Every structure is written in structure tokens, then in C-alpha cells.
Amino acid sequence: MAEGIKLAVNGTLMRGLELNPNLLNAGAEFLYEAATTPSYRLWSINDVHPAMVRVSDGGIAVVLEVWQVPPDGLVQVLLQEPPGLSIGKVPLATGETVLGVLGEPVLCEGQREISAYGGWRSYRAALDKELSGVRNVHSL
Predict the structure, then answer these.
(1) Category of 31 on φ-ψ map: left (φ > 0), alpha (ψ -120 to 50) or beta
(2) DSSP assignment, residue 92?
(3) How does pLDDT run across 64-84, given as a tens digit for each residue?
(4) Strand pairing of 85-91 and 97-103?
């Protein structure tokens, strides 16, 4: 890809997840895995997708992916994002700043904070393990 905009994604747009086809259909290419500076908190929005919000105190480094997206594809991806998510500047642990998907603080009200998991994939893996344990108990 000759030209593109780096976009950090921290949830269902990541490789293999539910909304990843939105990136692929927009002509995006995966570049690398990364982490933010420790200045974010992460919430699960009804266990459907995460919302990453920058905070002034008590933040963590969130694991994410960086993609290169054609400029017109970026608009396409943003328009397909769930309500309450937007694009903003995200500082990475490497010192680089890229555009990234962020959640509006109001979206997180009454939702489960999942910052302790460090990222959406870790949270989903723990949730899946928890749910499979519940299913196994019910099958006894």
C-alpha cells in the first residue's frame, strides 16, 4: 500500500474478530501489534465491544493492533463503528502517536471496567473460559 493512515484498533476490528472484515473491505493492511502508553482505561460495552478512554491518572497500557488504512477507507471504517466510538490521537509505548479508536466517556457509564485484563482479547478469553466453566457445571 503506497499511502495510508496508521490506525490503532483495540477491539472487534482486530484480526479474526467480528468487525475485522470492515478493515479488510476498506483495503487496510495489518502492520504490527503494539501497546498504548499507560494512560487509558478499558470498558466492556455489553460484552459486544470495548471502549478505550484516556485518563489523567490510574491508566494502563492497552494492547492493540496498528493497521494502515487508505484515507477513504478510514471514513468507511469509522462510519461502520458502533455509536459512542470515535477516532482520536493515541500515543503508543514506542513513542509514536497514531490515530486510534476511542470510546466516549458517557458510553462507559454503568459498564464493566476491564482494564485489569490489558486488552480486549485477554478479556474475551477470560470471559469465554468463565462461560465454558458455567456450561460444564450445568451439564453435570
Answers:
(1) alpha
(2) B
(3) 999 999 999 999 999 999 999
(4) antiparallel
Q: Tell me the three cell numbers of residue 13.
A: 476490528
**Phi/psi of residue 125, nearest 5 degrees:** -65, -45
User: What is the signed CA dihedral for 105, 109, 112, 118, rounded to 10 degrees?
Assistant: 10
Q: What is the DSSP letter of 104?
A: -
Contacts of residue 23, Cβ cutoff 8 Å, sequence gap at least 6? 9, 13, 67, 69, 73, 77
Place of cell 450445568: 138
Q: What is the pLDDT of residues 12-37, one digit of tens each?
A: 999 999 999 999 999 999 999 999 99
Residue 88 C-alpha cell reads as: 482520536
Helix, coil or strand: residue 127: helix
Q: Which residues of 93-107 are buried (b: 16+ CB within 10 A; e: fewer)?
A: eeeeebbbbbbeeeb
- How far is the C-alpha of 140 from the C-alpha of 138, rounded, in Å? 6
What type of residue sits at position 56? Answer: S
Are 72 and 37 spatial neighbours (Cβ–Cβ below 8 Å)? no
